[in-house]
Design brief:
CATH architecture of the domain at 6-202 in chain A: 4-Layer Sandwich
Radius of gyration of chain B: 15 Å
Strand content of chain A: 15-25%
Structural class of chain A: alpha+beta
Oligomer: heterodimer
Number of helices of chain A: 24
Shape of chain A: globular
Order of helices and strands of chain B: EHEEEHEEHEEE
Number of strands of chain B: 9
Strand order of the largest sheet of chain A: 2-1-6-3-4-5
Largest sheet of chain B: 2 strands, antiparallel
CATH topology of the domain at 6-202 in chain A: Aldehyde Ferredoxin Oxidoreductase,  A, domain 1
Number of helices of chain B: 3
Helix content of chain A: 25-40%
Chain lengths: 586, 144
């Protein structure tokens, strides 16, 4: 329901009780990213460890969620096990609309259950069920069992973790409704640390529409633009996978632990075109989004003699094709789908998992580690060893996998392979585009290619003007803070211009939020950086591994002096953004 | 007369735009539940989607079960007309529906498809159709 205050359900797993809290601040924090940061400031302990029971796991939606198409994302705020700092991860599926129809702006989970449990919430219920029998179960089995245990089929969202989350992997994901994820920076381990195997959000409320004609008019303008123009067609056509061949052609696709940026012999086997032609089974969508960008591939595996087969459906996108495909040296999309399936089963973030294994493969080649550590042969382009290793990574079988599960750099430091660890803040996203992206991902808030348009800027000729580029990063982030507070999918950023967002907010009676939108975006950006600094972030200390200075892109070799200049300029600017005196602006 | 059919649900991507449109346009609600058509998985999202919607029974058992005349059969081809003023929110229609196509909200108001077709244009994959009975899904478009 539209309201000026935020309506929050606070669940304390330690005492198995919950209560509703109403908090003001809509004009300043909007919802989503802003609300998550506000709630972390209120309920989190910046000096504490990520797995202290009192630390909150926060899920937020925004004022436009459910009211407009593509407003279909949930923001998860938490203290990251990856770097110990405040972090955000975003996911769609049904999660956002389920929270809307549970009549909650946020779900905040604190405490630690005495044993494995499942939390179920809705507009008229809150229940914590003991579920020791689910502990140790993979993501797929857990999902199937939960369907029968929980109410609300058709109007619910199920968030669940796999073995990686239970075992404290710093890049364990939270699986959302099978095909979406709070993927990065380890939210899955936070759930695991709370003994929380799954969360069901049942959206069982119904609300009156806003009064007046403005809402209907605004809705139809946006819906028509999304469905009747070509603005969103690339997302449902080849989907993000359409970029795989394009980036390879630009010498910007990381191959074999970024030892190359193009592989003309293999690219055709993992291109978006190849996936669409031979592997695409169907599309699916997040609730409330008619685009349907989720691409499901099929995997058929012979598991026994006499033609005994099984089949699986695996969601693919650009990033998993990079991380578990080109990065591991594969030129066969079916083999890549097999690894994606294995990663899903364990509840690992596919990007960090793939990049970590790419490092392990090169470390093995260089003799820094042996099969005594990896327990299985690892070789670029050979899937069977990787499948075994993915299981070990989820289970944290031995010291090597325990270290690797804490982050590639943790293992790299231990085994002396930091130079070739492909880590830009976290395991890299799939863009070896150049200095701008390497610096952006290393330092930006989510260490994500979606924090700024850096990877696209790298693909065009640009002046090496560090001041101008950094100003662009900062402006980009503030603008994206608005959309991720609304909360819209970043694929919709071309549709949801500032004017469009203001119209949409005004049509819901939130004129005050519309009037303060730009100021709120900047305030949210600063709040996030303050939280980051309070939880230990030192942007000046963030280094870019040597491997990135060896990369050759379409522009030629990397200009390391310029990259360092840009890194220092951005880090300096972030320190300014996170200064405590900036709080006076709020 | 034309009747609503969820004719090509094997194409459905589960975006629920139809449910949201029905709730918004017909019932004046923001909801994915209090709507004449509701989309759920067939047994987990990996199994595809199905529509829970009126199948235009003729005669309609929900109308027969309604004690106050709020639901009456349409002139022809099955389905019902609803007069909300006459409804006492008893829920007899919900129990009478053989395919679970009618739901009640927290105030016991019933929601069902009235075969108006306003959701049809919101489906991005053309799963939905208004057609004469027996004629639905008769035209198969060639994919480009």
């Amino acid at each position: 329901m539209i309201r000026q205050d935020f309506r929050i359900l606070l669940v304390d797993l330690s005492v198995r009780k919950a209560h509703i809290v109403d908090l003001p601040g809509r004009e300043t924090y909007i919802g989503g990213s802003g609300l998550a940061a506000m709630l972390f400031e209120k309920y989190g302990d910046p000096a504490g460890n990520w797995n202290d029971p009192g630390q909150p796991l926060i899920f937020t939606i925004g004022p436009l969620t459910g009211y407009f198409p593509l407003m279909s994302k949930t923001v998860c705020g938490f203290l990251s096990p990856y770097h110990g700092q405040y972090a955000e991860s975003h996911a769609g599926g049904r999660s956002a609309l389920a929270l809307r129809f549970a009549d909650l702006d946020a779900l905040v989970i604190t405490g630690k259950a005495s044993g494995p449990c499942v939390l179920s919430v809705g507009s008229r219920h809150m229940e914590i069920k003991d579920a020791p029998f689910l502990w140790g179960k993979d993501v797929f089995t857990t999902g199937k069992m939960l369907r029968h245990m929980l109410p609300g089929s058709g109007t619910r969202s199920i968030l669940r973790i796999g073995p990686a989350g239970e075992n404290g992997c710093a890049y364990a994901c939270i699986n959302v409704d099978t095909y979406r994820h709070f993927g990065r920076l380890g939210a899955g381990a936070v759930m695991g640390g709370k003994n929380l195997k799954a969360i069901a959000i049942v959206g069982d409320a119904s609300f009156p529409l806003p009064e007046g004609k403005e809402y209907a008019k605004c809705f139809h303008e946006i819906y028509d633009q999304i469905t009747e123009t070509s603005m969103m067609s690339k997302y449902h056509d080849l989907g993000t996978a359409g970029n795989v061949a394009a980036l390879d052609a630009l010498k910007s696709l990381p191959w074999r632990n970024l030892q190359a940026t193009s592989d003309p012999e293999r690219i055709d086997g993992i291109s978006g075109e190849k996936f669409a032609k031979d592997m695409l089974l169907r599309n699916t969508a997040c609730s409330g989004c008619p685009v349907g960008c989720i691409h499901i591939g099929y995997l058929r595996e012979k598991f026994m003699a006499d033609n005994r087969y099984l089949y699986k459906q695996v969601a693919y996108d650009y990033e998993p094709i990079f991380a578990l495909g080109s990065m591991l040296g594969f030129g066969d999309g079916f083999k890549v789908l097999g690894l994606m399936d294995a990663v899903e089963r364990e509840g690992l973030d596919c990007m960090s998992g793939g990049v970590a294994l790419a490092w392990a493969t090169e470390a093995l080649e260089k003799g820094l580690i042996t099969e005594a550590e990896t327990l299985t042969p690892l070789s670029f382009g050979e899937p069977e060893g990787y499948k075994v290793a993915i299981g070990h990574l989820g289970a944290a079988t031995n010291e090597f996998y325990r270290l690797l599960a804490q982050g590639t750099l943790v293992a790299a430091k231990h085994y002396h392979g930091e130079d070739f660890a492909c880590v830009l803040g976290q395991e890299m996203a799939g863009y070896a585009t150049g200095e701008t992206f390497f610096v952006s991902e290393t330092l930006s808030f989510r260490h994500s290619h979606l924090d700024s348009s850096a990877y696209s800027a790298d693909q065009k000729k640009q002046d090496q003007d560090a001041g101008k580029i950094v100003a662009g990063f900062v402006k980009d982030e503030a603008s994206r803070c608005i959309l991720t507070s609304a909360v819209g999918c970043l694929f919709g950023r071309g549709v949801y211009t500032e004017e469009r967002l203001k119209d949409a907010l005004a049509s819901l009676g939130l004129q005050n939020v519309a009037d303060n939108l730009l100021a709120a975006g900047e305030a949210i950006q600063k709040l996030r950086w303050r939280l980051r600094m309070r939880t230990g972030c030192d942007p000046m200390a963030a280094k870019i591994p040597k491997r990135y200075s060896e990369v050759v892109t379409w522009k030629g070799p990397i200009d390391t002096a310029y990259m360092e200049e840009l890194r220092q300029a951005y880090a300096t600017r972030l320190l300014e953004l996170g200064r405590e005196e900036e709080a006076a602006g709020l | 007369m034309k009747t609503f059919f969820a004719a090509r649900m094997e194409r459905c991507i589960g975006c629920q735009s139809c449910s949201l449109a029905c709730a918004r346009l017909v019932h004046k609600r923001l909801s994915w539940y209090t709507a004449g058509i509701r989309i759920g998985s067939s047994g987990g999202i990996s199994t595809g989607f199905e529509a829970r919607v009126c199948l235009a029974c003729d005669p309609p058992p929900c109308a027969a079960a309604c004690p106050t005349g709020a639901l009456t059969p349409r002139k022809s081809d099955g389905g019902i007309k609803q007069d909300r003023k006459l409804c006492i929110r008893c829920g007899k229609c919900v129990a009478a529906c053989p395919v679970n196509a009618i739901v009640q909200d927290e105030l016991n108001n019933p929601y069902m498809c009235i075969h108006c077709g306003r959701c049809v244009s919101f489906c991005p994959h053309d799963c939905l159709e208004m057609a004469e009975k027996g004629k639905a899904n008769s035209v198969h478009e060639e994919a480009e």
